[in-house]
Amino acid sequence: MTSATSYEQQQQKLNDSNRRLENKLKEREDEYTSYKQFYILCGTFNVNNRQPPTNANLDEWLCRAGKIPDIIAVGFQEIDTSGGAYLYDDKKKEDEWEYVVNNTIQHPAESKSRYYLINRVRLMGILLFVYVRSEHKKKCTAVSRASVPTGFMNITGNKGGVGIRFRFYETDICFLNCHFASGDGQTQRRNEDYQTIESRMVFTDGPTYSIKDYIWHTPAPSGANPTTNNGQPVTSRWWKISDHDIIFWFGDMNYRISQANEQVRKAINEVSMIPLQEKDQLKCEIKLDRVFKNYQEHTIDFIPTYKFDPGTDVYDTSEKLRTPSWTDRILYKVKRKKIHSNFNNEKQIQDETDVVKPLDYFCARTVNFSDHRPVSSLFLSSIKYLYDEKRSNSIREQLIREFDREENDAIPTIDVYPRPPEVKFVLIKYLDKSSYKMKIKNTGECQVNYTILTSSRFSAGDVKQQSVPLKPDEYFFNCLEFVPPVPSSIQAKEEQEIDVIFNVKPEYASLFTNKKQLNEILILHVENGADTFIILDITLDMGPFGLSLDQFPVTLFNRSTNTYVYDVKQIPDDGGDDYSERQENLIEMKKDPPALYLALIDCLKERELDLIDIFNADTQDNLDLIPLRNEIYNHNYKFDKYENSDLLMILIHLLQCLPEPLISTQIQKKIFNSGRTHHQLTNSSSQYLPSGNTIQSSLPLSTSHRVANVSGSIPNEMKNAVTILIEQLQPKERNLFFRLLVLFQKIWPDEQDKQKNDNSQSHRAIQNCIESLSLALLHGEVNSQQRHLFIRACLEDDRSNSNIPRSSSKTIK
User: What segment(s) does the record annotate as region Disordered (predicted)?
Assistant: First the structure.
């Protein structure tokens, strides 16, 4: 073991030396590199779920007089926002838009200007094409594509980003097309969408796999395994967005103008754009260093591109009367802003030249069939065209000799602030998302690579694999998030701020209920350097979130008023003559759910609820549950002033935070687990169907990768399974389940309502509702298909001929 560890350390040391050599060599690449300038055109267009018109003319958008681009990247958003886009991959709309783009950019009269599609990638309504002129086709290598969803729960692909990267001659280029969260007040959500895509998008030239665990997101495969000339597999390479020499990031970023609607429209009419740009959310967020760090954008000299009445030049006149904004943007980033070149065989380049120089930036106002206007920008880019191997080798030998004169064992060193290093979160409540800033300064002469770990993943200087499970007392680590994400690196003499974010996830809430104080140690591990211990100090107050039903105070019922007592303060202990009488009227309802659950359910059942409206994306994006949570923490259960969406989502949070799901794990395994045998099941006849088959053999297998649709017939076996589940519940759990069932059946949309609201938004809302309710009742113990069928069996059964027992006065008062 010691010998193996020593060998690994020597290899690591050698790798560090080689990396340093390559970095130094790259710093001098202008001395052995020939550059050539190429035109690159980027375009973005939100088509608002419109099909390409039969007479579509996109020349104004994608063509430039006198300048033929060498690379064309075209991004679309909302090519398909129908409910079907969540369920299956339909290539028809992709092909339609590819046909239109092809017809626009191809120039038959000039053979050199024919274009070749090197790749395309789609995430639901987000689509990206990248073309190169045919003469450059052989110089495009290491082509890869990727996608990252940022929609509901970071699962659905209605929002997110797609990317295509490749090596063009000797330059690594990445094109990204995105669609961020909508809404005037959703700047932070848009920032989070950017951060999610930036941190999670990874490209590889190795194989990727798509597992359809959810019907609404199917990542695109990147292709077959690459092989060498002799047929041997090539070792997979991986690239993050930041690894590329040139990055073009465009799309419907949805940033708005933070100014009154009428003032914006007046400024547009007066062609007064500069004051509006000062209120542009994206420019403000970039200036505050919150998003798109080191990205650049050409000067905007066109009118806001959103939102128009389709087919006109008139800004939105609908009921919502949206504020015109520059939602559609094109940004770029380069590793080196300037290059120096002493030679070029074909085209003379100045001694100092911009790597990327924007030539124009405008919107195509004549393309008006959508509520957006398409935007495009033409760039002149200096590409690493040819390497002089002889000169490169000469410089390499020179550098090696220089390194021989230096100390070989450069040890990275850092300073961590505050001192002593600690992270403190004070009085964290459920739903709080608290942030604490740390600063790491690289005081050494080499790059610092670091990560932050728990003690279970670190031992004697060795970092264990991420697959090593956390110890039982280290579950807190799954509630921590680091921005930028770790592992990360810091260049020599630079510093980096880290936001440490703590947010209690529902599945861990019960583990924090018995801990008011967390004192833990995190390890900031520096590769080949000294490690730093960080004190993590957290004080917590989970309130009722994470408590089991039996941990709540017993529920009281007042016989004289025939109502539940939601607040014991309603019965003053004043010692009066009628105090004993008041006490006699109170009954302990030991088999009834806690008063908090009853108060929420009773308040909701008295209202007219619209599930489609509650689970609509706009409603969910604008939820603020903190005021209602604070009332619950103060044991104030008067909920009349709160919105339906707030009350229902808090109820779902309470159910998701239960230590055991309402339908216990044991019951779920007994009913749903297809691998159990007759001997392993109990002898209760209720576990068998009238046909004689076991429930397990009649339900979908737990290994299925399909998810139940929100429509269609429900197997009778599932309805029978619901009956069996109910029979095995404990009295308090059964009582609460019946109350929830009565509430949700009352407000569940019937077939007439679904047909009345048959559109993509309603379809998504019902899907989100089914997923939330199924996780609330079952947690994640069974697969999504079984959960969804279970919820639908509970809510969509035939009321007049149902196998599910109905609540009675004995169970629900």
Answer: 1-22
Instruction: Tell me whether strands 171-179 and 246-252 are parallel, antiparallel or unpaired.
Output: parallel
For residue 552, what is the DSSP state?
S
Amino acid letter, 665: T
- Residue 479 carries which DSSP code? G
**CA neighbor of 77 nearest in space, from 222, 181, 189, 154:** 181
Model pLDDT, residue 287:
95
DSSP class per residue in 60-104 = HHH--TT---SEEEEEEE-S--SGGGGT----HHHHHHHHHHHHH
Q: Over the stretch 293-321, which tens digit does the pLDDT of each residue have?
A: 999 999 999 999 999 999 999 999 999 99
Rounded Cα distance between 448 and 491, Å, is: 6
Phi (first) and psi of residue 172, to 5 degrees: -85, 120
Nearest 10 degrees: Cα torsion 91, 97, 98, 102: 160
Check residue 254 and give left, alpha or beta (phi > 0: left; psi -120 to 50: alpha): left
Q: What CA–CA distance (Å, rounded) separates 239 from 165?
A: 9
Q: What is the pLDDT of residue 228?
A: 47
Paired tokens of 139: 């110089």
For the chain, what's the residue count? Answer: 813
Q: Which pLDDT band holds residue 463 (cuts at 50, 70, 90)?
A: low
More confident residue, 17 or 169: 169
Kindly tell me the number of DSSP H helices and DSSP E strands found in the chain. 22, 29
Q: Say how far apart CA 508 and CA 479 lie, in whole Å.
A: 8
Cβ proximity of 471 and 456 under 8 Å: yes
Integer Rg of the chain from CA: 31
Whether residue 172 has pLDDT greater than 50? yes
Give dist(CA 248, CA 69) in Å, integer. Answer: 15
The helix (H) or strand (E) run that includes residue 673 is: none
In the predicted structure, residue 542 carries a pLDDT above the cut 70: yes
Report the candidate in 799, 802, 773 with the shortest Cα–Cα distance to residue 787: 773
Q: What is the pTM of this model?
A: 0.51
**Is-cis flag, bond preceding 484, omega within 30?**
yes
For 67-91, b/e burial (b = at least 16 CB within 10 A) is: ebbbbbbbbbbbbbbebebbbeeee
- Annotate 679-743 with DSSP letters as a single string: TTS-S-GGGB-TTS-BHHHHSPPTT------SSS---HHHHHHHHHHHHTS-HHHHHHHHHHHHH
User: CA 533, CA 665: separation in Å to the nearest integer?
Assistant: 38
How far is 133 from 116, CA to CA, in rounded Å?
6
Whether pLDDT at 697 is above 50: no
Q: Are 611 and 583 in contact (CB under 8 A)?
A: no
Q: Which residues contact 419 (CB under 8 A, 6 or more apart)?
A: none
- Give the chain's domains with CATH numbers: 34-216+236-340+352-387 (3.60.10.10), 414-461+471-542 (2.60.40.10), 546-571+583-605+624-660 (no CATH)
Among candidate residues 752, 755, 785, the one with its CA nearest the CA of residue 770: 785
Each residue's pLDDT tens digit, 173-215: 999 999 999 998 899 999 999 999 999 999 998 765 443 333 3
Token pair belonging to 501: 């974010």
Distance, C-alpha 378 to centroid of its chain:
31
Closest CA to 37 of 348, 311, 338: 348
Count Cβ neighbours within 10 Å for each residue of 303-318 and write b for 16 or more, e otherwise: bbbbbbeeeeeebbee
β partners of residue 170: none
Token pair belonging to 279:
């209120």
Measured CA to CA, the distance from residue 436 to residue 481 in angstroms comes to 11
Let me know: does 236 contact 206? Beta carbons within 8 Å: yes
- CA–CA separation, 792 and 772 (whole Å): 12
